[in-house]
Design brief:
single chain; mainly beta; SH3 type barrels; 5 strands; about 60% strand
Length: about 70
């Protein structure tokens, strides 16, 4: 059985575009610049999303891991 660990998946997504869905119908879309074992994320050239609509663009976003529902490449 081939199991993929979440942190190894994030390693493969470094410097690539991702969509991060957060609690409360919020999210970010941007380039994954870094992460830690708690799945805290650093996104560059990010767009903040609220109910799927872009609300603002930010050069750098730090997302706390316990707010993340999923990360999609």
């Amino acid at each position: 059985m081939n199991t993929v660990k979440p942190l190894s998946m994030l390693s493969k997504a470094l410097n690539k575009p991702v969509i991060v869905e957060l609690k409360g119908n919020k999210g970010f879309r941007g380039t994954l610049d870094g992460f830690d074992p708690h799945m805290n994320l650093v996104l560059k050239n990010a767009e903040e999303l609220n109910s799927g609509e872009v609300t603002q663009k930010v050069e750098l976003a730090i997302v706390r891991g316990d707010n993340v529902i999923y990360i999609s490449p």
